[in-house]
Amino acid sequence: MAGLLYRIGRFAFRRKWTVVVGWLLIIIAAVGADKAFAGTLSSTVTIPGIEAQQASNTMHAKFGASSGVSGELVFQAPDGRKVTAAAYREAIEEATAQAAKVPGVVSTVSPFTAKTISANGTAAYTTIVTNATSAQAVTAATTDALQAISAQAEKSGMTAALGGVAFSGGTPSTGSATEGIGLLAALIIMAFAFRSLRTALLPIATALVSVVVGTMVLLSFSGVVTMSSTASALGSMLGIAVGIDYSLFIVSRHQSQVRDGMDLEESAGRAVATSGSAVVFAGATVVIALAALAVVDIPFLTIMGLGGALTILVAVLVALTLIPALLGFLGTRVTRSRVFPARAVRGAGEPRPSMGARWVALVTRFRAPALITAVIALLVLATPATRMELGMSTSLTGSAKQAAAMIEDDFGVGYNAPLIVLVTGDSSASVTAATTEAGTEVAKLPDVAAVSAPRLDPTGDAAIITVIPKSGPADQATTDLVGSIRDVRGAIESGTGTTVQVTGQTAINVDLSAKLSHALPVYFVVVIALAMILLLLVFRSILVPVKAMLGFCLSALAALGATVAVFQWGWLARVFGVTQPGQLLSFLPMLLLGVLFGLAMDYEVFLVSRMREEYTHGKEPQDALRTGFAHSARVVTAAALIMICVFSSFIASDNQTIKPMGFAFAIGILCDAFLVRMTLVPAIMSLLGRAAWWLPGWLDRILPHVDIDGANLPAMARNEDEAAPGLLEPSADLPVASG
Fold it and tell me: What is the rounded CA–CA span in Å between residue 316 and residue 280?
């Protein structure tokens, strides 16, 4: 591995123009693919095979266009007035009539006919049924026309808003201007780490290349597969953070070697061979963690996982090829800066111990107290995770959010979480009897605010009733109500020979959440098993991978606990812009485990591989620990701070799906990098001593040897001039510092 990467690094450094032009062509091709093949992103998710989704498909087949996704046009009279006043009633009736004529609208129901007027008479809503089967299928032309009708109704003095399931789709914002602040913070951190502004720009530039190529290629598939808008946001988030980190490790190694007097091209080759080997294996852990989302057989998670894995793969390739090429342009200027003083260059005197060296000396001296303190801190943070509630609440913005608030204020929160009970059978008589009985039994259940009259399909072999809960779509009581309805249906089905199912967007979200919760343990086991194998290959040790897994579990639980406290319980909600504390998104723990696991293993590989490098080169375990940590601590610290800055920038997003993801990832990195990798790891490694590198003889014989430490590089360098042209072509005649 190290030998191949060594040759790649030298080739890219030497043939810098070829590599840069190659990546420019790749960028152009990726952007072109996006423009040619990209489709519309979805803001909701569905899972084939769950009961509520199957019932929804049956309902659309039975009722045709009349069962299309529906929404509401909500009207609210000024303070002290009622919507039943003549002027307001006329405006509402006119809006209802105009809405019925909009292309894409199947029917409208006036609130004065459907009795959808609030008890105090201050608000009403018109139900609008579309010909679409999902919110994403509602065309922009239909929505724009209805928004114009809403604006016209407001001229009467009322407040009007278009909302409901049909008009809550589209592609929500996945970020904000503060993402630029995150990149700026990353640039400042790297400028201080490298003590060179121009050098700090390299990881930013290459990370942007990773994001552009990865996300453009991903989006080009949105025309043929249903893709959540969150998938592109996740890819962008990971591409920026990981792209910067991977480039940072290689550039830092190169800069250090050049300051020690190594030849520029040789340094580029060795940086890619050593730090690049760690990049390959660290990237492999992230790819495994994300691609393994496919094993749970949930389409939208599979797309998100594979999309994130694609971006990571691009980031690895960029770091291994484009970075050494750009270092070739930078030449000797990689160590010089007009901004930072020259004290960054090592002098002839005794160097002052670095912060990392002082920290590892402190931790290894007081290893037991350090270990206990870090574990207690992580467990305290993890405590709220024991009360975690998962759901699939919808993030609303604009008019849809306003309409939902108006309905909640005047009708009750349950009107935003309607459930549909679908009854199917062989005859009209059995369906009618079952529907009547179902309506009676459901009305007796707790948390039921209202049950509508039944509506039969044209053939009479299917009927639906709408159930309005007292609780909202993200409340546990609503989830319990779905289960209660399914509990009482057994007697109805056996007595009438019919089938009773619960559907509607709220029920679909409940079933989706349940399936995700059941899939989580399977996913976790698969990821841990695959990663253990990979780490065994990297470190050739039993205890180092086990330690890495246990530390990851602690940091993941701490991140989940902090997220529960803020986004579910509402602690510091105003600080983080949480407008509606409630259930966490059901797929958040799974994504957190996948992403955080990969990134945690990044730090483990970068930190411990340098320790192993020192150990395999002859140092005693304690000396190898301290030397390896001291060499890696600064760059790992910078990488973690950069990750935290990038992920934290997404907390300011108005997308309520992205906001908790950014928070959870940032807290997870904070805990894993500084409490686990920088504290627990050296403490445990110091306690284990030589035992940390123990591997049974039989396992050592069957495991393939992977040269991640660059042990064979010295011999390779001596024979470099004897190599054949190509990747090993001599480069003495090529300028390396001209830039």
Answer: 7
pLDDT tens, position by position, 315-368: 999 999 999 999 999 888 877 655 555 444 444 445 677 888 899 999 999 999
Q: What are phi and psi of 435, to 5 degrees?
A: -65, -40
| Dist. CA 535–CA 418, nearest whole Å | 49
Query: What pLDDT, in 10s, does the model give residues 293-314?
Result: 887 777 777 888 888 888 899 9
How many domains, the chain? 3
CA angle 555, 558, 560 (to 5 degrees): 110
State whether residue 338 is helix, strand or coil. coil
- Against a cut of 0.85, is the pTM above it? no
How far apart CA 156 and CA 164 sit, in angstroms, is 23
Integer Cα distance of 157 and 352 in angstroms: 74
Closest by CA position to 205, among listed 329, 318, 338, 123:
318
DSSP string, 127-162: EEEES-SSGGGS-HHHHHHHHHHHHHHGGGT-EEEE
Q: How far apart are CA 572 and CA 29, in angstroms?
A: 45
Distance CA 150, CA 142 (A): 12
CATH number, domain of 596, equals 1.20.1640.10
Same structural domain for residues 307 and 271?
Answer: yes
Same domain, 254 and 364: yes
The residue to which tokens 């007595």 are assigned:
495
Q: d(Cα 158, Cα 75) in Å, to the nearest integer?
A: 7
The rounded distance, in Å, linking the Cα atoms of 182 and 166 is: 35
Dist CA 235 CA 212 (whole Å) = 10
CA distance 244 to 246: 6
Has residue 729 got a pLDDT over 50?
no
Pairing of strands 584-585, 390-391: parallel
Residues 6+ apart with CB under 8 A from 408: 415, 416, 472
Which DSSP symbol is given to 340?
S
Q: CB-side exposure of 252: number of CA atoms within 13 Å?
A: 25
Q: How many CA atoms lie within 13 A of 28 on its CB side?
A: 6
Q: How many other β-carbons are positioned within 10 Å of the β-carbon of residue 195?
A: 20
Using an 8 Å Cβ cutoff, are 576 and 566 in contact?
yes
Residue written as tokens 């929160």? 413
Strands 70-76 and 448-451: unpaired
- Residue 297 DSSP SS3: coil
E strands present in 258-381? none
Distance CA 196, CA 192 (A): 7
Based on the fold, state whether residues 136 and 176 are members of the same structural domain. no
